[in-house]
Each structure stands twice: as C-alpha cells, then as structure tokens.
Write a structure and sequence with these properties.
Structural class: mainly beta
Order of helices and strands: EEEEEEEE
Number of strands: 8
Length: about 80
Amino acid sequence: MIYRFSNNEISIATANTVYDNPLIRLVNTTTGIANVTISVNSSVNVCSFTILANSDMVVEKSPTHRVQGTGIVASPVAYRY
C-alpha cells in the first residue's frame, strides 16, 4: 500500500481533527504502549485503542472527530493504488 501525505505531521497530545482529514496515519514515537482516543467532543468518546511501542497504523475517522494520544504524531493521508 502506498500513502499520499497531504499535510505536515503533528503531535496529538491535545485533541485535534488532524486537518479534518478522514484518513490518518498514527505513529507511536515512545518505547511503551500508547492509548489513543477518538472523540466527537470533550464529553463523547467514539472509541479508544492502543498502539504498540515504536509502531504505526492508519485509521479512518469522521473529518470532524478529534484524535488524542500522548507520544503520538499524526499525518493526514490518502490511499494510492
């Protein structure tokens, strides 16, 4: 799979929509597991999950959903086949 990056990588220590992009690449830059939360607003969580140490994953979300995780950086991406 090839990814097309559409903007700069950012820290999501504070909840962020990651440029309102529906597809994002998350990277855990720490040496331990990291928890990520996707929310509609500060009181409604959509889901939460764990990213293993020094690893990455691509997540699809609603453009307005906010993503937050300590030690996590995020980039907006698109698939390219």
